[in-house]
Amino acid sequence: xxxxxxxxxxxxxxxxxxxxxxxxxxxxxxxxxxxxxxxxxxxxxxxxxxxxxxxxxxxxxxxxxxxxxxxxxxxxxxxxxxxxxxxxxxxxxxxxxxxxxxxxxxxxxxxxxxxxxxxxxxxxxxxx
Length: 128
Known about the structure:
Blueprint: H1 12-33, H2 38-85, H3 91-117
Helix pairs in contact: 1-2, 2-3
């Protein structure tokens, strides 16, 4: 259910989302069937909604970084196939691509990590 085509083991980030969704469903069901007071119900749903939203945003940002790297790798493979197909020398191109790829991957990961670690919404308290 959670594995990709290379691994049969569940991915940790997908497992976190699944657990968060299950807990959200349990909380919603509890508030409906156990007749918990409205104040507690709203607080539980609000708090877990924030946790669930954070979990989903984390997963989407992680996937974005992974997919960017996959796109770079796929593009380089296609370029090399075309160069070989038309009989061009690929050694110099491979060296340039390796250096460029390392730089791009490093920059992409750094910017993704910066985005992932910035607060979703920054609120400053009103001090009187």
